[in-house]
Amino acid sequence: MVVKIQNYKDAFNVKKDYVECHHISRDMLLNGDNQALAKTLATLSALAEQVNKERWSGYHKLYKKLLEQLKDLDSFPFDQEDLREQLSDLDQKIKQKENITSVPIKLKE
């Protein structure tokens, strides 16, 4: 599973390929890996895709869901506090209707 987590991070941070991220998290679900983590990663990649496509109603639903999922996780392979801060900053920018040209989130360990 460590390889999948690293692949997810590379796809998210470097490639910014959120569809690939979604496929990685789906594979984790199908293979019976940590279900809560896989669902959280799937939500994160779906949220990033909504931001990329400027689909704000979908973003808002996923944002709330992601925060709940993060709260319920026992362990998370990335810096959860940093991710929460980045999500909060993104949400503020969206609420202020700033022009967002790419997803300003980087997963850190």
Categorize the overall geometry. globular
What fraction, in percent, of the residue positions are helical?
A: over 70%
Q: Return the structural class.
A: mainly alpha
Mean pLDDT: 95
**How many β-strand runs?**
0
Measured between the Cα atoms of the first and last residue, the distance is: 15 Å
Q: Which percent band covers the strand fraction?
A: under 5%
Biggest β-sheet strands, sense, barrel: none
Residue runs with pLDDT of under 50 for 5 or more positions:
none
Count of helical stretches = 5
Over the alpha carbons, how many angstroms does the gyration radius reach?
13 Å
From N to C, what is the helix and strand string?
HHHHH
Account of the protein in words:
With 109 residues, this protein is mainly α. 72% of the residues lie in helices and 0% in strands. It has five helices and no strands. Helix 3 runs antiparallel to helix 4 and helix 4 packs antiparallel against helix 5. The longest helix is centred in the middle third of the chain and has 18 residues. The mean pLDDT is 95.
Brief sketch in words of this structure:
With 109 residues, the protein is mostly helical. The protein contains 5 helices and no strands. The chain is globular.
Topology:
Blueprint: H1 2-15, H2 18-30, H3 35-52, H4 56-72, H5 80-95
List keywords for this structure.
mainly alpha; globular; 0% strand; 5 helices; 109 residues
